[in-house]
Amino acid sequence: MDLSFLVQLLRFGAPVGLASLGESVGQKSGLINIGLEGQMLAGAYAGVLASLATGSPYIGLLAGVGASLGLGLLQGLFVIRLALDQVVVGTSVNLVALGATSTLFRAQFGSSGQLLSVPALPRFGPGLDLVVLAVVPLVALVAWVMARTKFGLVLRACGEYPSAAEAAGFSAQRVRWLAAVIGGLFAGLAGAYLSIGVAGSFAESMTAGRGFVAIAMVTFGRWRPWGVFAASVLVGGLEALQFEFQARGVGLPHQALIALPYVVALVVLVVVGKGGGAPAALGQPYERAR
Amino acid sequence: MRTMKTVALAGAALAFLAWGCEPSAPEARVAQGDLQRSFRVALLTPGPVSDAGWNAMAFRGLQAIQKDLGATVNNQETSETKIRDAMRSYAQEGYDLVFGHGFEYNEPAVEVAKDFPKTVFVSSSGGKTAPNAGAFRFALEEGFYVAGYVSGMMTKTGKVAMIGGPDVPSIRSTFKAFRAGAERAKPGVQVIETFTGKDADVAAAKQATLAAIGQGADFVVHQANAAAQGVFDACKEKGVAAFGANLDQNDNASGVVLGSAVINAEPAFLGLAKSVKEGTYQGGIEVYGMKQGAIDFVWNPNLASKVPAMVQEMVERLKGDITSGKLSVPMDQF
After folding, report:
1. Secondary structure of A209-252 in the HEC alphabet?
2. In DSSP terms, which residues pair with B98 in a beta bridge?
3. Cα–Cα distances in angstroms (integers) from residue A240 to residues A27, A249, B197, in the given order
4. N vs C: which end of chain A shows fewer Cβ within 10 Å?
5. How many folded domains does chain A comprise?
6. By CB neighbour count within 10 A (0-12 exposed, 13-18 middle, 19+ buried), where does B26 fall?
7. So what's the pLDDT on residue B127?
C-alpha cells in the first residue's frame, strides 16, 4: 500500500466524510438532516454546471456549496422556523433535489443525456488536491469548536435540552440556524467534490445513497467528529478493498463484496454499540412557549 | 397556527412532487387532446432515458417513431411491480404499441396482452409470446465479442477488464461474449469482471476501473450506462484503452475510446412500429444482430493509427463471419 493509494482512498472517501461531518454538527444541535442526499445532489449538479460554464473547478465548488446552502436554508425555514417534522421535510428535499437536477439536466443536455466531462481539480504530489488536503484540518476544526468553544457548548445544549439553552439566554432557533448553515456548507462541498473532484462528471442521482450513508456514519461515529471521520474512513476503505477483491477475482460473489462495508459497520455497531450518545432532543422541533 | 403550518407543508410537498414526478416527455402530452385517433406508442424503461446508454438508445428509437410515423408518443421510467399497472394504463388510454425495454417486461407483457387484444406489447428480450405480444432482442453480444477479440489481440499485459453497473442477465451475457472473444484471440488471457451494483454511480465506476487497471488490465469495456464517464476517465488517468457500449462513444472527451460495440436501434423500432400500424404484427421473437444491421463494432477514426492493420483486417473478417452466420457468438437466453 503506497502513498498514492492512500490519497486515492481519501479522495473517494471524502464526499461521505465531509457530509457526515456537517451532519454531526447538525445532529448535535438537534437537527436530523434527512435531506442530506438531496443537498449533495444539488451541490454536485450546480458544481458541474458552474465549472463547465467558467472552466474553473474552484468556482464549481463554490457554486455547489451555494446551491446546497440554498436548499439547506429552505429546509431550515420548514424545520426550524415553522418547526415541522424533520424527517418529512428532509424527504421532500430529497425528492425536490432529484426532480430538479434531473429535469434541469435533461433540459440542458438533451433528453437522452450526455456523458459530461468537467475540468479536473488541479492535483499535486501523490494525487493531492485542495479538498483532500482540507479534510483532516476541517475535522480538527469541527472537533475543537464543538468541544472547546462557547458556541460548541451552546450548540450541544440545544441538542440535549434546548429549554436550558434558552433559559441561559441563548436562542435555540438561532443556534440551529447556524448548525443548518454549517451542514449545508459541508453537504455542498461534499456533493460538488463528488462530481468535480472524484467522478469528473455528472449523472442523474449520482450521489447513489452517499447522503444516507453519511447519516449512518454519524451514528456509527458516536456523534464525535473524529469518530465520524474514522467511521467514514473505515467504510470508505472497505469499499475500495471490495473493488480490489473483485479485480483480483477472490472466489466470493460480488453481491457479498459490495455489501461488505455495511456488514462490517453493522457488526461493529452491535459489538461496541452500547451506550448510545444520541443528543436527547434530536429530531425534536423547538418552539418558544408563547 | 398548527393547521396553517400543516397546510403550508402539504402545499410545499405537493409542489415538490409535481415538479419531481413530471413525465419526461411533456412535448408528447400536449398533442393528445386533438389527436384522438392518432397512432400511439409508449415506451417503458428500467432507468432514466438520459443515461446516454441503454435507455437513451430506446428513447431515440421512440423519437424516430414520433418523427417518421407521426405517432403520439409517451414514455415512463418504471420497474418491478409497477410494470403491469403502467402497461394497463397505456392500453386503457388506447395506445397501439407498448414497448418495455428489458427482459423483465416480457412476462407482464404476455399477461396483460390477454386483456387488451387491440394493443401490441413488445419487450427487449424474453422468451414468451402471444398473438399481440412478443420480443425483440438486440444481439449486442456480437459487438462485445468483437471488442473482446480486439482486446485479446492487442493486450500487452495479458489482462483485460469488464466494468458493469448492476449485475443483470443482459449485462452478464454481453460480458460472457466479450470474454469468449478475448479468449479466441489470446487463449489464457485473464479477464477481470467487476460490478459496482449501482446504475448512476460515476465515482464507483471510476474506483472499480482503477482497481482493475491496478491489477494490470490495459483494455477496459463497460456496461455502466450513465456512469461510463467514470470508466473512461480512469482509463485516461492511467493511460489505457477503453471500449464504448450501446451507443457510439468514440468521440468521448476522454479520448481513450478505441472503438464501440453499438446498437443501431432506430430501424428495428421503426420496423416494429410500422408493422403494428399496418396491422401486420403477429407476435413472436425476433433477433436483431449484425446480420440485420442492428449491431456493429465501429473503430474510433482518430485512434485508427494505433491499431495494427492486421487487427483491423481480422476484425473485418470476424464481422463477416458473424454476419454470414459462419460464426455464432455465445448468447444467454433470458
Report:
1. CHHHHHHHHHHHCCCCHHHHHHHHHHHHHHHHHHHHHHHHCCCC
2. B42, B121
3. 28, 14, 14
4. C
5. 1
6. exposed
7. 86
- A116, B37 Cβ separation under 8 angstroms: no
Q: Specify the 3-state DSSP secondary structure of B138.
A: strand
Is residue B70 over pLDDT 70? yes
Using CA atoms, how far apart are residues B120 and A247, in angstroms rounded to an integer? 44
CA quadruple B171, B177, B182, B183: dihedral positive or negative?
Answer: positive
DSSP code string of B69-128? H--EEEEEE--TTHHHHHHHHHHHTT-SEEEE-SGGGHHHHHHHHTT-TTSEEEEES-S-
Listed by number, the residues of chain B in 254-283 with a beta carbon closer than 8 Å to a beta carbon of chain A are 254
Distance of alpha carbon B19 from alpha carbon A40, whole angstroms: 19
Q: Which of A102, A239, A248 sits opposite B48 (nearest CB)?
A: A102
* Residues in contact with B89: Cβ distance below 8 Å, sequence separation at least 6, in sequence order: none
Give residue A165's domain range: 7-272
- The CATH number for A19's domain is 1.10.3470.10
Asked if residue A277 is part of any domain, the answer here is no
Q: pLDDT tens digit string along B193-218?
A: 999 998 899 999 999 999 999 999 99
pTM, entire model: 0.89
A26 is a domain residue: yes
Task: Please answer yes or no on whether A201 and B233 come within 8 Å at the CB atom.
Answer: yes
Quick check: B1 pLDDT over 50?
Answer: no
- What is d(CA A192, CA A50) in angstroms, rounded to the nearest whole number? 10
Q: Which segments in chain A show pLDDT lower than 50? A: none
- The nearest alpha carbon in chain A to B25 belongs to A111
Q: Do A111 and B50 touch (CB under 8 A)?
A: yes
Say if A1 falls within a structural domain: no
Query: What is the average pLDDT score of chain B?
Result: 89
- Given a contact cutoff of 8 angstroms between Cβ atoms, the answer to whether A211 and A222 are in contact is no
Give the CA-trace dihedral at B285, B287, B288, B290, to 10 degrees.
-170
Between A130-148 and A3-28, two packed helices, what is the crossing angle to 10 degrees? 40
pLDDT recorded at residue B24: 45
pLDDT in tens, B226-262: 999 999 999 999 999 999 999 999 999 999 999 999 9
A-proximal residues of B, 168-197, CB under 8 Å: 192-197
Please report the domains of chain B, with CATH numbers, ordered by start residue: 24-138+265-288 (3.40.50.2300), 140-263+300-324 (3.40.50.2300)
Which residue, among A84, A105, A88, A129, has the nearest Cα to A42 in the 3D structure?
A105
